[in-house]
């Protein structure tokens, strides 16, 4: 019977390999290779036919808003859909960002307090106008020989300061308390440079705290805008300030 014949494997027809004198043409294509190549060719041919037919039957007045929001980069199409993430997930992400900014603000504030406790800040980095200090002399000869550091009895590096400008005697006494008794001018200059670095660090960290505070307010406004309710824009967003909204009760 036919079922009994199918139980036995039939004769396997073998295909010859590439003859030795034709090896320069590469591997000889077998029937399996031809079948795979033919199927791939016809699949692509059918796809092109379907696309060509779709283009011929397309309505020229057809419009979709995703034609505007979508974009194409390097041959890859992006729909431009911004609502892929659920609204509740976005709220949670923004709340976590606000908590992170609060934590960073607290860390920076503690560092600033620690630096200020080690420094004698008197009017440092104030935005007040600088006061003038006029020194009167008798003649022009004294003007040419006038020495500010000697007049104010301070170190030459501190002459341009309008605050925290100690005299040489108090400066040497303070340095002797933490340094060897024979203190050179080079060592005094080095200590003053280190002190100025700390002042600038306080200024930079204060600036960073202000930036973190602005970013936190911006995120909080975005989070509030995701809630329901009618609101009205009171003030537009300006440099360094977030927009202000008022919700109707």
Number of H/I helices: 8
Query: How many strand elements?
Result: 4
N-C termini distance:
89 Å
Which structural class fits the helix and strand makeup? mainly alpha
Spans with pLDDT under 50 lasting ≥5 residues?
121-129, 177-181
Radius of gyration over all CA atoms, rounded: 40 Å
- Biggest pleated sheet: 2 strands, antiparallel
Strand fraction band? 5-15%
Note down, in words, how this protein is organized.
By secondary structure, the chain is mainly alpha-helical. The chain is built from eight helices and four strands, in the order αααββαααααββ. It has helices at residues 2-7, 31-56, 66-69, 87-117, 140-144, 148-152, 168-176, 185-225; strands at 71-73, 76-78, 231-235, 244-247. The strands form two sheets. It has a two-stranded antiparallel ribbon. It has a two-stranded antiparallel ribbon with strand order 3-4. It is elongated, with a radius of gyration of 40 Å. Mean pLDDT is 76; it is low at 121-129 and 177-181.
Notable characteristics:
249 residues; mainly alpha; two-stranded antiparallel sheet; elongated
């Amino acid at each position: 019977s036919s079922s009994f014949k199918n139980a036995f494997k039939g004769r396997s027809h073998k295909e010859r390999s590439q003859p030795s004198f034709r090896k320069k043409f590469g591997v000889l294509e077998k029937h399996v290779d031809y079948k795979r190549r033919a199927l791939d060719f016809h699949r692509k041919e059918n796809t092109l036919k379907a696309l060509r037919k779709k283009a011929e039957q397309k309505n020229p007045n057809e419009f979709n808003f995703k034609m505007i929001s979508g974009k194409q980069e390097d041959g890859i199409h992006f729909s431009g859909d911004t609502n892929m993430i659920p609204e509740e997930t976005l709220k949670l992400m923004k709340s976590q960002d606000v908590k992170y900014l609060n934590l960073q603000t607290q860390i920076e504030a503690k560092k600033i307090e620690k630096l200020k406790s080690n420094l004698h800040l008197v009017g440092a980095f104030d935005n007040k106008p600088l006061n003038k200090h006029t020194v009167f002399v008798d003649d022009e000869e004294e003007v040419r020989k006038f020495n500010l550091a000697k007049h104010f009895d301070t170190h030459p590096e501190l002459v341009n300061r309008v605050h925290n400008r100690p005299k040489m005697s108090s400066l040497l006494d303070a340095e002797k308390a933490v340094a060897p008794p024979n203190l050179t001018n080079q060592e005094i200059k080095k200590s003053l440079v280190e002190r100025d670095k700390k002042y600038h660090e306080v200024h930079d960290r204060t600036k960073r705290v202000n930036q973190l505070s602005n970013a936190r307010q911006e995120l909080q406004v975005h989070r509030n805008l995701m809630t329901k309710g009618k609101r009205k824009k009171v003030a537009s967003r300006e440099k360094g300030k977030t927009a202000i909204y008022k919700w109707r009760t």
